[in-house]
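Reviewers asked in the last cycle whether our approach scales beyond single polypeptides. To address this, we selected a multi-component target totalling 653 residues and predicted its structure end to end. The input consisted of the following lines:
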Amino acid sequence: MLGYFFRRLAMLALIVVGVAIFTFVLSRALPSSPIEMMLGSKPTAEQIAQARADLGLDRPVVIQLGRYIVQVAQGEFGTSLRTGRPVMEEVIQRLSATAELVSLALLLAVALGVPLGILSAAQRGRWIDGLTRMLAVSGVAVPVFFLGIVLQMIFYGWLGWLPLQGRIDTNLIVDFPVPAHTGLLLIDSALAGNTSALKSAFSHLVLPTLTLMLASLATILRATRNMMIEVLGSDHIRAARAYGASRRSLYFKLALKPTLVPLLTIIGLTYGFMLGGSVITEVLFDWPGIGAYIVESVVTNDYPAVLGVTLVISTLYLLINLVVDMLYFVLDPRIHV
Amino acid sequence: MIDTAATLSVKNLTKSFVGQHGIVHALRDVSFEIERGQSLSIVGESGCGKTTAALCIAGLQSLDAGSVTLSGKNFSAASRAEQNQLRSDFGMVFQNPLSALNPRMRIWQSVAEPLRVHQPTLSGEMQHQRAQAALEQVGLGAQHFRAFPGELSGGQLQRVVLARALILNPKLVILDEPTSALDVSIQAQVLNLLQELRDTRGLSYLFITHNLALVEVLTDQVVVMYAGRVVESGPAALVFAKPRHPYTQELIRTIPEATPKNRAAFRAINVGQIQAAAEVGCAYRLRCAHAKIECANVVPPLATQTHAVACLFPLS
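The resulting structure, written as structure tokens, was:
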């Protein structure tokens, strides 16, 4: 198993290099140039030449690529053309905001989706099954932006219970700064014992988490239900009923275990997808996350940032997949290497 | 006190489903008994209700009416928890042994599962020992104990399922088509094993089958079902030697050599027609060579002559 793990890790490194090369070539092949953005509307020819030399754009593309790979291998993604700050630093900062949002959304989606899925499978065809089906269909069908706006209208506009946008109350954070340990505000403010910051961070998280969660909840719920029903209909479950296994052991032990394997794949994919796909939610709630960062970087031709983000997200995606694959060993005793 | 109650007593079992052709009466008033140490087979063609009978008896399907009594204890009227307790009184063997075993459990774990349910205080060590003993009893060697179901052959798997059914030392084993998923040479092995176990442990079997060889070798009583009704029942030897119901006769004649010529004797009739026929008269009259007008108007009662038969004009 350890050998398999290291083989997979080596493969992962190769894929990351591939992604780096691909995104780099793509960024050079695009017709737009970051120079215009950097130098304003009417730069002189000397200014352009100077900027190109500074960025190394006057060298052959192969040399540029080589230098880029070496840089990346050293964990150096260059500086953002837009903000002038190191890309790595920005990505980590933005990513922690997204990770907080996405992890919470996924956690909630799993914590609600799996039990509701089991319940619908157990109550197949009854009213609770119909209710969860409606929830699932609307979860997939309702566009994220619409859901977000509706939630904002209700909980901010009408009820005034929750803040409209942002990650935390800015006045509060100026008066009582929270030292960053993990980059996750919930954890950091809890560590600092700053309850008002914790409250604020939490209330800011509620709406974007709900918005982001619903589609995944729907997927996980339906997947759990359908796989549970399939397993529950199998002969070995009937055999277990025949020798007197209790309902609890039927549902939570015998039927849930085989369901968990494919479910884990879905959860892993969903997590990776959410990390890069939370753009709409982030823009809607002015969440300072990686999705919004990607959009800003792309529209301003900030290619070091785009490349950096792409690499980080694809690496994360691959790592999540690796973790999921390793978990199969735990869940299915039949798998040996 | 000697327990004289029948091992299994089934009374007026009735069950219907809503199917494609409207309501299908899978069981109509089915009754029979298995005396202690005796074995019984339910035979009949596919769709006659025999598997539904097995599932209803085992409490895997709810009953519309009727009762199932296990060694004097009313099983069908028990609560779910009580039923689960009573399930240690019988073992169950299904048609397809591969799918009846949890693919994620090792063989010995599957066999030990009923122990974990019914004797939860038993140590892991003891469970393992009991499972091993049960597996050895059905003729499986130590090299198979830690295998997964996918690694064994069909005959070996059916032995595993049998070991699981026997580990709680039940007096009754319900076997639903135990040999039909096995090829002929393996069938013979399993039959020999069943016979040996019956003789050494005094087991009662309830077979659901259309394997008449099995019926002849292993059972004392036979119940013939057609369209959810018992059409003939009695001692196996007698029913085979002198079938009184035309359906039984046809069944005995046809099954051992299912050639197209003989199969033509059974006219193709759909379930809906049979169900409709069963409402007002003898369900078999649509196929029966001896059918008369009266057969369409009266549901023949199960009357005892040399043995029980439900036919207005029984064969002599």
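Chain B touches chain A at residues 58, 60, 80, 83-85, 87-88, 91-92, 94, 96, 99-106, 113-114, 117-118, 148, 150, 161, 164-165, 168 (CB under 8 Å). We regard this as preliminary and will revisit it once experimental data from Aim 1 are available.
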